[in-house]
Amino acid sequence: NAGVMQNPRHLVRRRGQEARLRCSPMKGHSHVYWYRQLPEEGLKFMVYLQKENIIDESGMPKERFSAEFPKEGPSILRIQQVVRGDSAAYFCASSPPSGLDYNEQFFGPGTRLTVL
Amino acid sequence: KNQVEQSPQSLIILEGKNCTLQCNYTVSPFSNLRWYKQDTGRGPVSLTIMTFSENTKSNGRYTATLDADTKQSSLHITASQLSDSASYICVVSARGSTLGRLYFGRGTQLTVWP
Does the beta carbon of A93 lie under 8 angstroms from any beta carbon of chain B? Predict the structure, then answer.
């Protein structure tokens, strides 16, 4: 059973370009979470998704950021018109569908986004 | 405001020695507290999860304690190894949070020297 997969591991974009980050949850997991980690900072919650539904996006900036978790395929975190301040490590985590807040979250290796 | 504070920010110890990392939180209502280990360039890996009714939990050389009254937790590492060098992150979840939101500390950067 492969762990949480994220790709790409490293992504370089120029200001104004779009960044697409992908996350494939562990097999059998239907809950996906995205976190952002700025240098020297702790992880910050961005968005929580279940298949085809956004459950909580209160941690995600209102503009330029969007996330989806389609019925088929990976979850996508999309950042439009990237700025230098978007440079960070973006982590995805997944958990099984028990619906409890005790759910163990398993993290992927992260995507390191660098905006030039 | 829900916050998680960790100390020290960084720590250097010699191989074979023990150490204790601290975590204070204000997350309320409290549900559970987790300690994660994050190696450089990798995602966090869970070490322990404790609910409010658990005072201590061990995972090999890692022992976590929890005092829900004072809202404090500690992670004790015994007989440290070079591979223990990593960031150790305290994470707290609020009760009733079916939304899965976790609150992260900034971590303690542990370096083990030979």
Answer: yes
Check CB contact under 8 Å for A91 and B43: yes
Residue A39 contacts B, CB cutoff 8 Å:
no
Distance set, CA B49 to CA A81, B55, B58, B61 (Å): 39, 11, 10, 15
Residues near B101 by Cβ (< 8 Å), separated by ≥ 6?
Answer: A45, A48, A56, A59, B93, B94
Element (H, E) at A55: strand A53-56
- Distance from C-alpha of A81 to C-alpha of A73, rounded to nearest angstrom: 24
pLDDT at res. A21: 98
Interface of B with A in 5-34 (CB under 8 A): 31-32
- Residue pLDDT, tens place only, A76-90: 999 999 999 999 999
Mean pLDDT per 10-residue interval, chain B, length 114 residues: 91 97 92 92 90 91 95 97 96 70 90 96
What pLDDT does B13 receive? 97
DSSP at A25: P
**Who's near A62: CB < 8 A, 6+ residues apart?**
none
CA distance A81 to A72: 26
Extract the tokens encoding B42: 């990798």
Q: What's the rounded Cα separation, in Å, for the pair A83 and A87?
A: 8
Is the CB of A63 inside 8 Å of chain B's CB atoms? no
pLDDT of residue A54: 92
